[in-house]
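Hypothesis: this fold can be encoded by more than one sequence.
Test: take the structure tokens below, design a sequence, compare later.
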């Protein structure tokens, strides 16, 4: 990636077009092209993707597509599906697509990946079988009672995906209540346990490494609580009321979890790409195996789409190119995601990890500096956002592109509510573009602010699976374009290491040395009453 801003002769074409279109008017782009909306939108994977409210014209779009071709995205996508080590810093493939691949889809994958498909299918079936047992209350607690309440402990990719999906498809919730606990904050633990019956509670511990501090501390606290409340031993609780979900079964075994209560997934499945794997147990328990399989099918349809569709008809590719257009070439370093569906309230948080833990990188795969990679991803559902941050989106000093997401059909009987929800979604996208003139500068809204709209038919499992997989490939395509590795996350280890030193200092003040003055000041304030 060329260092920005390059000299005119070395600039990649998209940057030349960005400089040309920096002051372009969306209103003018529409007024001079009656077919603009049709020409800058696409239908794929059962979704309508309208990107006509972006500062793009044919030449700029072609320059972006040429950039994708020059970056050999088709060949790199083939490497991904062939199971090559696309995660070079960890020497791994990225095979999360296999988690959602039916056994019959062998032909989509290359030899290295094909060799793993049957194992992935076995892991999936083991998870679904356990989900059925839990839903049918076949599991019995150490106290001899049916396990009909579930607590799920995990964090990051071991929480965000399952929790987001269970909330998004809440209208399909036919199984036991599943409570998600992720934060190490004891208030979250206390809230999770409130009202639970220890004698009827199943604890699912999800951790790819089975070492994450928050997860292990929460898991042990819940096990201790269950033992105390039920009068059973910890060993009895772990033997009958705990399930482990991990890529490190040996560590789960050291924890004491029986092999027949341990669900595995492969190390080639990244945490933020793992909801399709055994990590999806809470989804299958809450919604049922059929809903989980519909979710997988939706995602698999995107796998098929990206392998068979090129250029401007490739939905995730266009999502990726528009994201790069705004973040890298137009230097718009913030990106809002506003789902007009309260059930998708956790989608922005899920996408924060998917996008920013994948592409929040400043070094290319070859070790050279990268420039202007992932922007800040944030958001909240509409219409609530209109009463919180849309003032800034309309009249702030920064141009912040918005991804609007909506479902044409409601999953509830309140038709007037849904009509107003959709009306507000379309209105906000239009208002950002057209603005409003006024003599009073305080009331003048300049408009010309870009957005895209993804319209799903309805918020069901298949559509949600497709939406999530589309964003996954958007992220992976962007990494290919930026020349970075989306599958590692080395920076997360530093804070964990320092936290161990600070925790020691909190326990034993005398050990607080070698820390900076600010940390020392804060530690002393915590120790004293001042
Ligand atoms: O945030 C760092 C991270 O390693 C994520 O990549 C991962 O999803 C999360 O922590 C939890 O890790 P584990 O699943 O190993 O507990």
């Amino acid at each position: 990636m060329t260092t920005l801003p390059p000299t005119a002769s070395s600039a990649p074409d998209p940057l030349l077009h960005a400089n040309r279109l920096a002051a372009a008017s969306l209103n003018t782009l529409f007024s001079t092209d009656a077919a603009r909306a049709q020409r800058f939108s696409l239908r794929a994977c059962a979704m309508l993707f309208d990107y006509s409210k972006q500062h793009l014209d044919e030449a700029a779009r072609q320059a972006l597509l040429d950039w994708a071709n020059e970056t050999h995205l088709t060949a790199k996508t083939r490497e991904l599906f062939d199971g090559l080590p696309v995660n070079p810093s960890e020497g791994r493939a990225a095979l999360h697509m296999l988690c959602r691949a039916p056994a019959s889809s062998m032909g989509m994958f290359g030899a290295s990946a094909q060799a793993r498909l049957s194992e992935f299918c076995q892991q999936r079936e083991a998870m679904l079988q356990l989900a059925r047992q839990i839903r049918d209350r076949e599991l019995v607690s150490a106290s001899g009672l049916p396990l009909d309440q579930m607590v799920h402990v995990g964090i990051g990719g071991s929480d965000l995906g399952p929790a987001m999906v269970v909330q998004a498809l809440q209208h399909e919730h036919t199984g036991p209540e599943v409570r998600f606990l992720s934060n190490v904050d004891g208030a979250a633990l206390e809230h999770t346990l409130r009202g639970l019956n220890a004698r009827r509670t199943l604890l699912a511990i999800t951790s790819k490494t089975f070492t994450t501090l928050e997860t292990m501390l929460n898991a042990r606290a819940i096990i201790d609580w269950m033992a105390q409340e039920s009068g059973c031993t910890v060993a009895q609780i772990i033997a009958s009321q705990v399930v482990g979900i991990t890529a490190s079964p040996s560590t789960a075994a050291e924890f004491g979890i029986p092999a027949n209560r341990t669900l595995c997934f492969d190390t080639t499945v990244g945490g933020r790409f793992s909801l399709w794997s055994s990590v999806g147990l809470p989804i299958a328990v809450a919604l049922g195996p059929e809903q989980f399989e519909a979710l997988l099918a939706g995602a698999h349809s995107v796998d098929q789409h990206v392998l068979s569709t090129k250029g401007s008809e490739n939905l995730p590719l266009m999502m990726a190119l528009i994201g790069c257009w705004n973040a890298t070439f137009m230097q718009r370093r913030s990106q809002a995601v506003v789902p007009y569906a309260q059930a998708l309230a956790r989608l922005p948080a899920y996408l924060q990890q998917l996008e920013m833990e994948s592409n929040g990188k400043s070094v290319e795969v070859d070790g050279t500096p990268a420039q202007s990679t992932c922007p800040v991803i944030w958001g909240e559902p509409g219409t609530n956002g209109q009463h919180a941050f849309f003032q800034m989106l309309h009249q702030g000093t920064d141009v912040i592109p918005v991804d609007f997401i909506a479902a044409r059909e409601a999953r509830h009987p309140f038709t007037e509510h849904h009509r107003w929800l959709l009306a507000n979604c379309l209105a906000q996208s239009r208002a950002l573009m057209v603005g409003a003139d006024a003599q009073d500068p305080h009331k003048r809204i300049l408009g010309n602010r870009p957005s895209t709209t993804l319209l799903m038919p309805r918020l069901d499992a298949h559509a949600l699976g497709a939406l999530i997989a589309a964003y996954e490939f958007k992220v992976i395509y962007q990494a290919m374009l930026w020349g970075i590795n989306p599958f590692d996350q080395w920076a997360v280890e530093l804070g964990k290491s320092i936290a161990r030193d600070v925790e020691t200092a909190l326990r034993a003040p005398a050990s607080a040395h070698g820390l900076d003055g600010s940390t020392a000041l804060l530690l002393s304030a915590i120790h004293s009453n001042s």
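Confidence is low (pLDDT under 50) at residues 1-9. The first helix runs from residue 13 to 21.
Hypothesis status: open.
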